[in-house]
Amino acid sequence: MAITREEVLHVARLARLSMSPAEADKMREQLDNILAYIRQLDRLDTADVVPTSHAVEMGTPFRDDSVHPFEEKEEILKNAPDREGDFFRVPRIIED
Amino acid sequence: MRDNQGMEFEAVIGLEVHAQLATESKIFCACPAAFGAPPNENTCPVCTGMPGVLPVLNRRVVEFAVRTALATSCKVREKSVLARKNYFYPDLPKAYQISQYEMPLAVSGHIDIEVEGETRRIGITRIHLEEDAGKLVHAGAFAGAQTSLADLNRCSVPLMEIVSEPDMRTPEEGGAYLRRLRDILVYLEVCDGNMEEGSFRCDANVSVRPKGQKEFGIRAELKNMNSFRNVEKALEYEIRRQTEVTLDGGTIVQETRLWDADAGVTVSMRGKEEAHDYRYFPDPDLLPIHVDQAWVEELEKTIPELPGEKVARLVSRYGIPRYDAELLSSSRRLADFFEASVAAFGGNPKVTANECIQWKDVVAAGKLSPETIAHVVEDRETGKVSATASRKLVELAIETGKPVRQLRDEKGLTQVSNARALEAIVDKVIACNPKEVESYRGGKAGLLSFFVGQVMKETRGKANPRVVQEVLKAKLG
Q1: Does residue B140 sit in the same domain as residue B175?
Q2: Which of A58, B44, B303, B453 is the most buried (most CB within 10 A)?
Q3: Last residue of a domain, one of B388, B410, B432
Q4: CA distances (Å), B345 to each of B262, B349, B379, B386, B401, in order?
Q5: What does each of the 477 residues of chain B score in pLDDT, given as a tens digit?
Q6: For chain B, what is the domain count?
Q7: Residue B58 touches chain A, beta carbons under 8 Å
Q8: Which residues does chain A have within 8 Å of residue B38's beta carbon, measured at their own beta carbons?
Q9: Do A76 and B24 touch (CB under 8 A)?
Q10: What CATH number has the domain bearing residue B456?
Q11: CA A67 to CA B132: how far, in whole Å?
Q12: Residue ranges of the domains in chain A?
């Protein structure tokens, strides 16, 4: 078994996903299959292989440090479920 | 620190600095990075994390960080990786912060600091790039408020995190390291270094251990310190607290503590620890950052003389005290001004240094020319103006923008140092005060300053007091 039910629930909680016990079992089984498939790579000797962060290696694309303001603030704000003036209104985070 | 059983403790301190890079635009989009715009004015689909957008790295951000790395003797990696740090918070619309994790931009550097006449080398573990988050405004600050307001202007403003080794042992060393690091960033012009406004922020990791013990104690992370003084005070408090807990047989808990500047204490942030599972992974939207040797060499040429080197050079070249050299080197502009002032006349560097330090705010504001200081110093050395008059002349020069020598002549602020010119006035003062003359001649030497005062009064402060004294002594003696 590549992943436990507890690990599935832990990751779900970090991702703010709620799932029923049946869904958690199904998810565990599917993730287990995916991880088992990927584990085939363990059969290779990778001692001399440099870790890969990206599939395609090429030069870094940069942009120059110049300002081009985005003029449609309203387009950004209108996606929000709630607002107050030009602020986004969000649930209060209690920190104490 | 020593307890009553003679057990001695030492602190182990490491500092993490977040410096806002002084770019025009944000790190991954073309929104302005400027401070103080109306809410959500500086936002776009990229920095608010809309679906389908693609971040593109600002070249100057990398240049600034590489220059910082070079100035702190770090090793710049040919290849580094931007990673996603995943967590949910209302000031973070993408639900991840783009940062660097396993492969930071630069590693293994150091900064030399001086504390109580001793040089200490503080290691730098790493320098990496990341983006800032937005800002939450807690509307209607009453306890029952159910909502906060989010302003995403700061989202994706470029930050550079500089992590030190746990090499500091006292709050003073922590303060010295921070000041020196801040000065370096300001010299490089990569960060404005303003701690109050948050463009230079510091978190501290601190633990205590019995002196001589090799292993580190359990550490607390201190946050919310917005001045150098507060960092030192928070460290002092926390070291004392941990020492007391340990001596009382208690155990230190690994936790984050907030500095409460008003109460002068650190307070535990309970329950924040369990969420530290960020599931970092390389950001698939951003290719690795490649910095080749040619680029590093090109940037190396842009590194100015740094504060530590400048202090040493000012001391050896001008023979001024180290303390003065430190004050002058706290700003590149001030140090340059000092050197230009000395060059303009070649007068006593110590006197010139004092003048520059005295007027440093005006120098910073660009309202004073090196010639003004040079002329004032020269006139004082040749006895043409008094210390009081020279102060007044500088003030007038700032006010009117006129050359000091012209002001000196216009306002008649030339000091009379010619003994012969003063003799008549001295004679008059002696004639007018026969009783005092008698007492003085009878042995009350302290009355000399009375006569000097009278002469100064007669000349409306224009006489050179040193010459007046000589003339008086000759006439009275």
Answers
A1: yes
A2: B44
A3: B410
A4: 49, 10, 11, 18, 20
A5: 555 566 789 999 999 999 999 999 999 999 999 988 999 999 999 999 999 999 999 999 999 999 999 999 999 999 999 999 998 888 999 999 999 998 999 999 999 998 888 899 999 999 999 999 999 887 655 556 678 899 999 999 999 999 999 999 999 999 999 999 999 999 999 999 988 888 999 999 999 998 888 889 889 999 999 899 999 999 999 999 999 998 888 888 888 899 998 888 998 886 554 556 888 999 999 999 999 999 999 999 999 999 989 999 989 998 888 889 999 998 888 999 888 888 887 778 888 888 888 888 888 888 888 888 888 888 888 777 777 778 888 888 888 888 888 877 777 777 777 777 778 888 888 888 888 888 888 888 888 888 888 888 888 777 888 888 888 888 877
A6: 3
A7: yes
A8: 86
A9: no
A10: 1.10.10.410
A11: 18
A12: 5-43
The answer to whether ipTM exceeds 0.85 is yes
Which residue range(s) make up the domain with B319?
Answer: 307-410
**CATH superfamily ID and name for A5-43:** Glu-tRNAGln amidotransferase C subunit, N-terminal domain (1.10.20.60)
Where do we find the tokens 């020492």? B243
Q: Does residue B60 belong to the interface with chain A, where contact is any CB pair within 8 Å? A: yes
Q: Is B65 on the interface with A (CB under 8 A)?
A: no
Which distant-in-sequence residues (6+ apart) come within 8 Å of B359 by Cβ? B368, B373, B394
Query: Given the structure tokens 């000349």, which residue do they identify?
Result: B459
- The number of beta carbons lying within 10 Å of the beta carbon of residue B319 is 10
Q: What is the C-alpha to C-alpha distance for residues B349 and A74, in angstroms, rounded to an integer?
A: 60
The residue type at B38: P
Instruction: Select the residue of A61, A66, A79 nearest B24 (Cβ to Cβ).
Output: A66
Look at residue B361 and tell me if it is in a domain: yes
> Does B228 share its domain with B183?
yes
Q: Are residues B225 and B329 in the same domain?
A: no
Structural domain includes residue B447: yes
Q: Does residue B269 sit in the same domain as residue B404?
A: no
The Cα–Cα gap between B157 and B33 comes to: 6
Return d(Cα B86, Cα B166) in angstroms, integer.
27
Q: Are B167 and B181 in contact (CB under 8 A)?
A: no
Same domain, B314 and B342: yes
Q: List, as ranges, residues 235-264 from B with C-beta within 8 Å of A.
A: none
Closest CB to A90: pick one of B61, B103, B150.
Answer: B150
My answer on whether B318 and B238 are in the same domain is no
